[in-house]
Input
Amino acid sequence: MSFYDQWAAILIGTVVGFLLVFSALVGAKLLAPYARERAKGVSYECGMLPLGRNWTQVHVRYYLIAILFLLFDVETVFIFPWAVTFLGLPEFVLYQIIIFIVILGLGLVYAWRRGVLEWR
Amino acid sequence: MSGAPFLATEHWWDLRDLSNISREILEFLDRVGPDWLAYVVSPLIGFVAAFLLFVLPSQLFVGVYGERRLIGRMQSRLGPNRVGKFGLLQPIADAIKLIQKEAITPRGADKWVMWTAPVVFVAPAVLVWAVIPFGPNMVIADIPVGLVYFLAITALPVLAAFMAGWSGNNKYSLFGAMRVVAMAISYEVALVLGLLGVVLFTSTMSLQAIVEWQREHDIWLVFLQPLAFVIYFISASAELNRTPTDIAEAESEIVAGYLTEYSGMKWGLFYGMDIGYALAAAAFGSTVFLGGWSLFGLEEWVPPWLILVAKTHLFYFVFIWTRGTLPRLRIDQLMALAWKYMLPLAAINLLVVAAERLWWHEAGLGDGIVYLFAAANIALALLLVVGWARVLGYRPERVPTRPRLVKHVGGYVAPGAETGGGR
Output
């Protein structure tokens, strides 16, 4: 185990994964039938012809959820290194992290009060 | 890798440690072949062994067949029972059928993205298994950031699902894609905060080291971190789009979600690898929370990889169980559960664990303290789960006091049910 780099294994795994998918897709391409039929290209809408544009607008709440997610995911990127090493760090780092989490918690409370989390 | 004494011998035929046989092969290749050969072959052996011994059989016979049989049993029907003995050949028949079906690309669809989406979905499924330790010497890549690596890799299918939904030129696909992204990112936050509690206790992110930590302290992290375990289970189930939380492909609302326009092998890859990811999530959960390949000393007698396989299937059974038992939740309920319930609980859990770990370290307490922590954390988890639900206004109705709607509209009320309590 010690004589090869761990990350090289992951690179090789990536190659294996792509080969696996391509073999499945190419196999399906070779084996699957192909029918010349115009109507099969119509996108599905309960059997009717589709009404309106298919790339429709979606609600803005998805965007707000995405912003909240960015906030908290960046938070975890900061907290993970701290979580591994925090026993060796000086004490004020703990208080800093607590303040950091509290500030983010305030952000969550603000979003909650403004109704971002309500799914109306 | 591990300094701990281990009973398995070094002979190649000792199946308790499969790394023996791969080491023999690699040493042979090193003697006869060029330098780089063993370098390339060693991860290949790992991936091939993991897939042939575990992933593929489990995926086919537990995921495709067993899951349908079990859910059939839970829902009082038969499930697949025609192809082969007891229907055991059903997964193979499914694969043969799917590969012969035409994969239709609708007019106006983004062809390139539509073909790339299954690739992006399936390729990481191989990579997930690289960091799962099957035994003391049996891990393909023991990278020091295994936990974050797992989270990063399992975030890729969400991207693939969005590509699939966006490219299909279909309203339902687009809605399904928006839903899957919204739900996956919401649960990702709670999941990551929950797993931080585990990292705080073990002070490492390597999965092998987490297993070793649980083995040294003779306790599973599920007892030390019950809240994190519950959060992990719900979040994993949400990210995998399994039934209590499968609003991304809710058949009754949006036809098949982001897979509406997919057919043939392109759909088959999505379906098959959904099970693959569920198995990977089960394996990761049993590694991090249920002690991985260790079983309180029994791993010296039973092959460790069999212990991990058994735990993974047990974990996966709970996935099947929830899927067969619980009804689908609405999207507003699921988003509220993620942001209002699990996220605050995970944050509180994080702070409590940090305080406990710091106290343990500063006061120089012995290892026996973990049992005290376990009892305290289980009590805290129960208190938080019940208490926070009460704070949010959840009142379970044990004995209904108000008249039911059925009385107002003159429906049938069973005799003796007027006093309440009748269901």
